[in-house]
């Protein structure tokens, strides 16, 4: 029958058939390819430390940042905040520093509520230390770190703007919480905020630190932090405090300039009161502020000098949220 | 009698007399010296271009700035403003660019109301040109220039702060009046302020120019300005406008970054209405803004591209005027 078919008017009919068959096959292949691309991605139960990377990890390491959030005894807040922060523009990855010693990470729950916009890595800690968050995590791929306390919510708008500011000042700690030290005639320093006297350099107030619990900074400083005098680690471990002051000393020494750049937040919230854990954060301890003054003086000893410098630059976003927020009555 | 005197009890009396005489002479000389120092300095009638320098010109050229103020047909405002500006901290000298062709500078009055805190130089111009203020004046000794329109008053507090900001951003135009250009689908640019649409880079507005009529910039840019294409001068002379837009193009090309840094003024005032001259400034002309859009497009032709870049950084002074102006409700 085949031969009979082939004997139809000349070769022409045979070639036409060949063409038709080829076309049909190609079309079928294309359709199959399209269907494959449209298939939903398969979920898996790998360990959190090697979370499945989303198909498109297109954020370049230069144009995105890693959120590092240390957590202790406030897993409910942590999870609330993760829902918020996982969706911030330019976020590359989240590293949760798990200070809940002996307690299981909420891996199952986390997986069951996937997929998630970015990878989230839970780093289980051996000891509950304040400075655990200042490790040079191997999972850290970006130049920029966003460090947040586990009770602080900053709006995506503020974060997107502050990240763009950090990109213009990459050697500084760019963040939302300014603090200062002041000198006294005795030479002993004191730590505080704007309720303290102004340092007296012209009009207005000055700040000499930006706290890292709500700030962007260069990941290189985590590397630098590993090479500090032992006495710095001892100080932080003794007080379970002052890691942020130590970082400001480090950055100021490194740059010879004010360590921080203050960006005035539009929407920053402390969620402490919202926790069910009953735990309300280290800064409520009676000795907290006195400790911080103590730390300033200890660090001056350790570093043999006061490297912190003052700044009075306050940065806001032009035309946001109010498009005329810079309007000047002349 | 002399000998008789000398024959008093021995040499002793003679020596005592000598001592006494010496002391009297020395005292008289000291008194004379003191009186000379207290004499009022003698006024002179030298030409304004070589104003007598005040006795102590201690402001270093690095830590002070020169005010350049061009004036046309508003001498009453000029004199009001000179009283204000001559007392600004860190001011080195004032250069008044006298565009009142054929009219005598108020030299006599100025001298009769001396002494003045800083030298003020009146530069008589041959032709009334907008770009006269952009000359490379030989009297200019400082790295920083403060350029002010002759109807604009900015408080000393704002100026002191903006000067400190300029010192941190010396390659930028640091000033109080932000403006922008926008693209349109046709490729034709338009000029304006915040009433125009946002350029569409994320939230909020952007600015791409800071006007030089109330701004600090590096004196080197005056030098650069002398070396621009002839078409730029022609444009400015034809429109009697746009010298500031041209400067922003120049600076943006030079740095590859946004030309300006906007400092939000606390107290900036337009004194136009206060003039007795009846003259109310170029920006009231009907075609003023259309001219500026025209200039943007012309300059893009001349420079073969759009060098202006957008910024949304708005700088304010931390803790001034309100010491808690950065207080955040958490």
UniProtKB/TrEMBL annotation, chains A, B:
<comment type="function">
    <text>Glycosyltransferase required for the biosynthesis of heparan-sulfate and responsible for the alternating addition of beta-1-4-linked glucuronic acid (GlcA) and alpha-1-4-linked N-acetylglucosamine (GlcNAc) units to nascent heparan sulfate chains.</text>
</comment>
<keyword id="KW-0479">Metal-binding</keyword>
<dbReference type="Pfam" id="PF09258">
    <property type="entry name" value="Glyco_transf_64"/>
</dbReference>
<dbReference type="GO" id="GO:0019276">
    <property type="term" value="P:UDP-N-acetylgalactosamine metabolic process"/>
</dbReference>
<dbReference type="GO" id="GO:0035248">
    <property type="term" value="F:alpha-1,4-N-acetylgalactosaminyltransferase activity"/>
</dbReference>
<dbReference type="InterPro" id="IPR015338">
    <property type="entry name" value="GT64_dom"/>
</dbReference>
<feature type="transmembrane region" description="Helical">
    <location>
        <begin position="20"/>
        <end position="42"/>
    </location>
</feature>
<keyword id="KW-0472">Membrane</keyword>
<dbReference type="GO" id="GO:0006044">
    <property type="term" value="P:N-acetylglucosamine metabolic process"/>
</dbReference>
<keyword id="KW-0328">Glycosyltransferase</keyword>
<keyword id="KW-0812">Transmembrane</keyword>
<comment type="similarity">
    <text>Belongs to the glycosyltransferase 47 family.</text>
</comment>
<dbReference type="GO" id="GO:0046872">
    <property type="term" value="F:metal ion binding"/>
</dbReference>
<dbReference type="InterPro" id="IPR029044">
    <property type="entry name" value="Nucleotide-diphossugar_trans"/>
</dbReference>
<dbReference type="InterPro" id="IPR052427">
    <property type="entry name" value="Glycosyltrans_GT2/GT47"/>
</dbReference>
<feature type="domain" description="Glycosyl transferase 64">
    <location>
        <begin position="65"/>
        <end position="320"/>
    </location>
</feature>
<keyword id="KW-0735">Signal-anchor</keyword>
<keyword id="KW-1015">Disulfide bond</keyword>
<protein>
    <recommendedName>
        <fullName>Exostosin-like 2</fullName>
        <ecNumber>2.4.1.223</ecNumber>
    </recommendedName>
</protein>
<keyword id="KW-0808">Transferase</keyword>
<dbReference type="GO" id="GO:0005789">
    <property type="term" value="C:endoplasmic reticulum membrane"/>
</dbReference>
<keyword id="KW-1133">Transmembrane helix</keyword>
<keyword id="KW-0325">Glycoprotein</keyword>
<dbReference type="GO" id="GO:0001888">
    <property type="term" value="F:glucuronyl-galactosyl-proteoglycan 4-alpha-N-acetylglucosaminyltransferase activity"/>
</dbReference>
<keyword id="KW-0464">Manganese</keyword>
């Amino acid at each position: 029958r085949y031969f009979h078919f082939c004997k139809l008017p000349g070769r022409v009919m045979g070639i036409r058939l060949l063409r038709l068959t080829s076309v049909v096959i190609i079309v079928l292949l294309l359709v199959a390819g399209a269907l494959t691309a449209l298939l939903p991605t398969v979920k898996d139960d790998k360990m959190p430390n090697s979370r499945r990377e989303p198909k498109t990890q297109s954020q370049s390491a230069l144009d995105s940042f890693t959120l590092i959030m240390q957590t202790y005894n406030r897993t409910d807040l942590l999870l609330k905040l993760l829902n918020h922060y996982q969706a911030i523009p330019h976020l590359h990855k989240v590293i949760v520093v798990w200070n809940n010693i002996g307690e299981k990470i909420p891996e199952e729950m986390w997986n069951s509520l996937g997929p998630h916009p970015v990878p989230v890595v839970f780093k289980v800690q051996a000891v509950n230390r304040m400075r655990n968050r200042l490790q040079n995590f191997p999972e850290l791929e970006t130049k920029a770190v966003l460090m947040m306390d586990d009770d602080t919510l900053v709006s995506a708008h503020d974060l997107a703007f502050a990240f763009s500011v950090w990109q213009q000042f990459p050697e500084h700690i760019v963040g939302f919480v300014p603090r200062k030290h002041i000198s006294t005639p005795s030479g002993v320093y004191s730590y505080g905020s704007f309720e303290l006297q102004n340092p007296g350099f012209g009009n207005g107030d000055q700040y000499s630190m930006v706290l890292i619990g709500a700030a962007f900074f260069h990941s290189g400083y985590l590397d630098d932090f590993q090479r500090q005098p032992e006495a710095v680690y001892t100080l932080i471990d003794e007080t379970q405090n002052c890691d942020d002051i130590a970082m400001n000393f480090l950055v100021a020494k490194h740059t010879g300039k004010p360590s921080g750049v203050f960006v005035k937040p539009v929407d920053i919230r402390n969620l402490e009161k919202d926790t069910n854990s009953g735990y309300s954060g280290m800064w409520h301890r009676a000795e907290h502020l006195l400790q911080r003054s103590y730390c300033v003086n200890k660090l001056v000893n350790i570093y043999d000098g006061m490297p912190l410098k003052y700044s009075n630059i306050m940065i806001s976003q032009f035309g946001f949220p109010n498009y005329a927020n810079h309007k000047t009555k002349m």
